[in-house]
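Pair request: fold both.
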Amino acid sequence: MTGLRLEHVTKKFKEFTAVNDVSFEVKDGEFVVVLGASGSGKSTILRLIAGLEVQTSGHVYIGDMEVDDYEPRDRNIAMVFQSYALYPHLTAYNNIAFALRVRRVPRDDDPDRYRRRTREEIDERVRHAAELLGITDTLEKKPAALSGGQRQRVALARAIVRDPEAFLLDEPLSNLDAKIRSSARIELKRLHDQLKQTFVFVTHDQSEAMTLADRLVIVDHGRLLQYDTPERVLRDPASQFVASFVGSPDMVFLEGAVESRAGAASFVLGPVRIPVRGETAPGPVTLGIRPWDVSIGPENAPGGIPAVVRGVERLGSSDQLYLELTAPGAAPAPGVSVRAMGRAYENQVGDSVSVSIDPDHALFFDKDGARVHSLETAPPA
């Protein structure tokens, strides 16, 4: 097994900077997901590792070896593309075997000389990969006769037979329909656990990222915003952008301000005041909270913020509620809204309820979207 590393890598296309001073390390056998929106630079990062693009500055390492001057074929990296890139005139068997037939290997009697693999060697490796991925019965079919999921497995098998230092996967599941895509994630994770090799996977789909990743690389406009475990990224995002990009349902953001009265600080939005603790200058801030960290209680519950249910999305085992917050004893104040998760079919539009925010999971951001670590919500007095 071999890890890889990027050190201060930048890639410019004329005046456009696609990757801007990116550094991160992937450990041996780790599954790292590069997550970002379209145009964020994530696929360019993968192509730089593979050697399909050459960085403007910085260095790429595979294991302990700097590979900046290595051609793609010499990096021993297997890449699986979004389009699968299968040869339409070849059977699945021959697509998988193709790289083995053209790639020479050292001779046993003289490592400085090379030979082609024998037919028996190729057949053994192809059938082993096909069995691993459950496509043995499709080996004699051409790509046109295969489903999207089968073509994706053939592309993975073609990568596996090469026994590469690392696997690079550029949105390989994006062409699958939703049902197959969900099962393919589980199969891909199982495959990684079996092979115990290094995987770097690019996607814009946060569900894929959270399911597959040991660690996440979050990128936007070519910059690395956070590199951490999915759990840490979800609970401790580095910025408001990261908080908004990861997590489903989306994080709720309430734009307000910190005010101080009689020595006590509060987060204020419209008629609603939420006590906070910590030291920060009064002024505009944004409170962020996950919908599942907003609790719904009966009307007039002690310590709760009065609210009215304005919308309900039935999700099956739970509901997503759209709530309008009000001040105690006041009429509803349009515009101050929050989402929360509730029990299925327990609430209806128009219901009066109370809302409480979990003080351990509320986050604050300044006007530029950076975290304000000195603030946290305080329990009701």
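--- second member of the pair ---
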Amino acid sequence: MSQTLDYLQSDSAERGIETGLLVHHLLDDAIKAGASDIHIEPWESTLAVRIRLNGVLTELVHLPLELMEKISGRFKVMANLVSYQTSVPQEGHASAGPDLGGVELRISVFPTTRGEKIVVRLFDPRNRSFDLAGLGFDRDTLRTFLKLLARPSGLVLLTGPTGSGKTTAIYASLTHIVQRAGPAISVSTVEDPVEFNLPMISQSQINPAQEFTYPKALRSLMRQDPQVIMVGEIRDAETAAIAVQAGLTGHLVISTIHSGIAAGVFARLINMEIEPFLLASSIQGVLGIRLIRMNCPACSQPCEPEPGLLRMIPPEALPAAEFRRGVGCADCMFTGFSGRTALTELLIPDEVFRDAVLQKKPTRTLQDIAIQQGMQTMWQNGLRRALQGQTPLDEVLRVIAVDQL
């Protein structure tokens, strides 16, 4: 049983719930479970508390609805927010304290028709290891990606939806570069926000309220003599143009951009009015990434996927398949899953692919060309893991859209 439930059922709670202690127990339960976020949301008759485990929301506890204002007020005090304002969104940072491992909190309070919803992002330095070898990349992808990071110039892009592991992969990439080159290399970042402070790296955070935007930061950064530049996200044409130009003028630029698949990055940048010949010259590689949950080793059992899913698998692969699924146990909080790993597709443009970009071929054509030139897709990567029993087949389809197969 969680400490939160223990406290709610204790004699002291019957005499009057102390909000600070209740919030402490909520944070403690979430941190011990390895959650990345806490969602506290007023529902029809309860205050629902859910935690995001391995990328999926899981119910933790339901609290009396009358505690909403007290809990909201407590988080606002922790983050130095305006406690009496309840009709506008507010955001802030706080520390959970040394007794909770020094976990950093990013607190967001948002008004709803039933009251305020609170989302707390947890940054636990004890659970974050920025090691490329530990991210779950397959051997060939890791070897090729490390070669990209060794190049002196060009643009390396990562793509995927929110929560797909892009930031962790970029931080691991920067850590690798610094460990390889030591003090002989200058690395600078522009982020929104800075999630972790990395050693030997100059990190800055944009502040639109002060007109410190990505384009303005990048223009100034170019005069700081960096060799490696990390841009948190390419969101607009101006940022894209500066990043491409930096990659062409002797800098290694690493950034993220939202696209469904790796090949879609080129169409996205062309839509930002970046000339195709600049993209063909500057982009050294695009890494598409997703995170999938792994079967709990303590409770995974052989299983048989649904017939509809089996039809997606090449018939020649079925005889050697070892499908497994976690049934749920105390070790995995009865979710059947334990930990996550990365599914990737790494697109390295060659002459054939670059010619297709110059001709502004559509994304699906670019994807087909990349596959013909040897790119392993995320679906192929995920299917291999499902066939080996590392994850259920439907978990792979949860993170990869059917139209991307």
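Observation on the second member. The chain has two domains: 3-124, 128-404.
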